[in-house]
Structures are given as structure tokens and as C-alpha cells.
Amino acid sequence: MTDTRAGSARPGGGAPADAADMAGDRVFAALASPVRREVLRLLREEGPQPVQRIAGRFDMARPSLSEHLRVLREAGLVSERKVGRQRLYRLEAVPLHEVREWLDPFERFWREKLTGLRDLLDDLDES
Predict the structure, then answer these.
(1) Of 115, 116, 118, the residue nearest 126 (C-alpha)
(2) Residue 127 in this model has a pLDDT that exceeds 80
(3) What are the pLDDT digits (tens) for 45-85?
(4) How confident is the model at residue 19 (pLDDT cuts 50, 70, 90)?
(5) Which residues, including other chains, have CB under 8 Å from residue 4's CB and lie 6 or more apart?
(6) Which of 13, 18, 95, 111 is a good FRET partner for 85, with 20 to 30 A between their CA atoms?
(7) Which DSSP letter does residue 9 get?
(8) How far apart are CA 103 and CA 88, in angstroms?
(9) C-alpha count within 13 angstroms, C-beta hemisphere, residue 10
């Protein structure tokens, strides 16, 4: 993805990064943290949860977890809804579909390379 600093150009020159590129950068940056990936896993497996329940799963200060949740929210990976005195967090899967679409060509690339390696090894076995 591209550099997210203001006025940054795309690799190899070109126009400055657009909003979609910057949103994608936020998603990848959010996914870089093991804590944030674990929060997403919890929400995927157990559904929407209050921040107190999420916090109980981690050995960290509440402000630190709140910062992780803020990053996930700004990346569009979770949503927050106030219910009474609680804040419920919910997984938002759309940005993950975009990550999957970005990764698909790389998966195909490596699948083709591994298929070629398998074919080469099969040819060697036959010799």
C-alpha cells in the first residue's frame, strides 16, 4: 500500500495517495498488531461484546485497550454502539473482504509457483 503522509505519491511516482488507499493503509496498520487481531478474532467467534468483557481478556491497562479499539474503529474493522451505560463493539467484515481481494493475486502467484515446483519434483521422480 502507499505511504499515508499528506501529499505522498504512489510508488514509482504518480498522483498522491487517494482516500481509498489511505483507508486500506489504516486497515493493514490495524491488522499489524497481534492484540488487535485477537480482538477481531474474539468478536468474530463470540459476537458483539461490551468493552469490559473484551478488556477482561487482555493483561493491559484499559486505556491501552481503548487505543487498540480506536485504531480498529478508525480502520472500519469494528463499530461501537452505546447501549445504556455500555459500549458494545461489533466486527465489521467489509474491510476484511477488501484485504482478501488485495491478497488474492498473491495467493494465485504462490499457488502457481508451488504447482510448478510439484510438477518439477514429479518429473524428477519419474526420471
Answers:
(1) 118
(2) no
(3) 999 999 999 999 999 998 999 999 999 999 999 999 999 99
(4) low
(5) 17, 21, 22, 25, 26
(6) 95
(7) B
(8) 30
(9) 9
Q: Are 76 and 27 in contact (CB under 8 A)?
A: yes
Give the burial class of 23: count Cβ atoms within 10 A of its Cβ; 0-12 exposed, 13-18 middle, 19 or more buried. middle
C-alpha cell at 21: 488507499
Task: Give me the residue label for grid cell 483507508.
Answer: 23
- Which grid cell sits at 74? 478508525
- Backbone φ and ψ for 9, nearest 5 degrees, come out as -100, 160
Q: What is the structure's pLDDT at 22?
A: 67
What nine digits make up the cell of 36? 488487535
Task: State the cell numbers at 66.
Answer: 481503548
Average pLDDT over residues 86-95: 93
> Residue 3 has what DSSP assignment?
-
Which residue did the predictor score with more confidence, 84 or 127? Answer: 84
